[in-house]
Structures are given as structure tokens and as C-alpha cells.
Design a protein that fits this description.
By secondary structure, the protein is α+β, with helices and mostly antiparallel strands. The protein has one domain. The protein is about 35% helix and about 30% strand. The chain contains 3 helices and 6 strands. Helix 1 packs parallel to helix 3. The protein is globular and about 35 Å long.
Length: about 130
């Protein structure tokens, strides 16, 4: 088995190729064919480390709404920006509160997803363009 690194209270396995989960996530997100596929991959990959019942993403400027799973009682919400570009809002939910180290891990994973999300949003038509 590969090496492990303790980050945010979690032991994160490195792949046999020596890639961290962040490197693997970036590779997976960079190969997504569209925004919905990218969000599917992102949600699936976060589930490997953080249990949640659902995830939502929206960008009102582009008229994009995405949801996977179901809403839970507890939610963590993030407004995503790349430089000055508004990318949207994303939230994770579940039936129990998120721990601080889980929130830090979500935030680290989101930092990897920001640029691929921005790239995919460039190809999404805005409201009235569909």
C-alpha cells in the first residue's frame, strides 16, 4: 500500500503513483467533459473522505442548478470566487454537524475544484442563451 500523510486529522492515502488525493482530484476534475460531470466527480470524491447526504451547486448568473443526494439537517455553504469571478454557491448537507477538520478538508478540496469549475462555467450558456 502507498504512503499516508496526516492532514486535517485524516490519514490521506497516496496512490501507488505517489499522488496525493488533491493531485488525483485535480486530474479527475480536469478530464470532466462538462460542469455536471465535474460536479458528479467532485461529490463522489469528497464522499471518500467526508460523509454527506447531498450537495448543491448553483450559479444564478448562468442559470445553473445542480443537486445530488438529499438535504440533511446540517449544511455548510460556500460562495466560490476565482479572483473577482463569481463562480457560484456550493453546499454540503447531512444529518449531523460537520467537525472543524471536515470543514477544513472540504475547503481544501474546493480549492482544487475552483479552476476546473471556472473553466467549465465558461462553456455554460448564461440565462436566456439556452
Amino acid at each position: 500500500m502507498g504512503m499516508t500523510t496526516e492532514t486535517f486529522g485524516f490519514e490521506l492515502d497516496h496512490s501507488p503513483a505517489g499522488l496525493s488525493i488533491y493531485d488525483e482530484l485535480k486530474c479527475l476534475l480536469d478530464t470532466a467533459s462538462n460542469l455536471e460531470n465535474l460536479l458528479d466527480v467532485f461529490y463522489f470524491e469528497t464522499q471518500s473522505w467526508i460523509s454527506s447526504t447531498g450537495m448543491r451547486f448553483s450559479n444564478s448568473h448562468k442559470g445553473v442548478r445542480y443537486q445530488v443526494g438529499v438535504d440533511g439537517q446540517y449544511r455548510c455553504n460556500y460562495r466560490l470566487f476565482a479572483n473577482q469571478d463569481y463562480l457560484g454557491e456550493i453546499s454540503f448537507s447531512r444529518m449531523s454537524a460537520f467537525e472543524t477538520d471536515e470543514l477544513e478538508l472540504i475547503e481544501s478540496m474546493l480549492s482544487v475544484a475552483i479552476l476546473p469549475i471556472r473553466s467549465q462555467l465558461r462553456y455554460e450558456p448564461g440565462d436566456g442563451e439556452r
